[in-house]
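Section 3.1: Structural characterization of target chains.
Under the original work plan, the team committed to producing a structural model for every single-chain target entering the pipeline before any wet-lab resources were allocated. The record below documents one such target. The sequence was received from the expression subgroup and is listed exactly as submitted; it comprises 255 residues.
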Amino acid sequence: MDARRWGRDATPELAGGALDGVVGLLPVGATEQHGPHLPTATDSIIAEHLCVATASAVPDTIVLPTITFGASAGHGRLLAGTIGVTGAQLADLVVTIATEAARSGLRRILAVNAHFGNGAALDLARDHIRLERPDLRFGVIHWWTLGAELTAEMTADGADVHANRAETSVMMAIAPETVHLDRVADADDPDRTDGLVFGYTAASLSTNGVTGRPSEATAELGDRLVGLAVTQLVDVVARAKTEEPPLSDHRPRGA
């Protein structure tokens, strides 16, 4: 079936209880340098693709518009192409999206993240929503953590991965027209973060914005990784449809 997408619906399709029991998938990406061979929209493309593929497989699911600007301070200002926001700005935007969507009746949202740097901001947004809006359910999923095999493949060429073997493989599989194949073979650059005490921007860690071995990427690997991620996301969404807190309106003993 075709994925239901918020931006393609009209008001009548989003009103009058039409979103009761529906799980919203919020793709969260970035616009940032991805080395010499991948587009700046890589993270946004991956996040949206995974959400659409999942929504195509699960009834009563809707894909919210993709957040295409992420917390990209880690890339600094020397490598061209990055347009980032602060972590606080991203957190505020996510909270706003969740609360605005709730006005139309959407009460369950899963943010599907494809950029490492967004993690802290998404955690902050989740903390705010669970405290201030207990009527909403909001979760965060980082696609590369959807199972041990995915995590192992993602970090096979370094822990501080970027535009690496796995990410390049996924782009070869889902958006091959955006990959500069003639530059992939010479794009490898090692992870230099092991043992470091402090954090540094990309220009102090990589000669070209890459961390990993994109020269080893294949579309076949990308297809496998996407399949693994979507299979796990389908399971998560199925559970998200009915999950409730383990304790209802609990008060600490003696309170």
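The longest strand covers residues 23-28.
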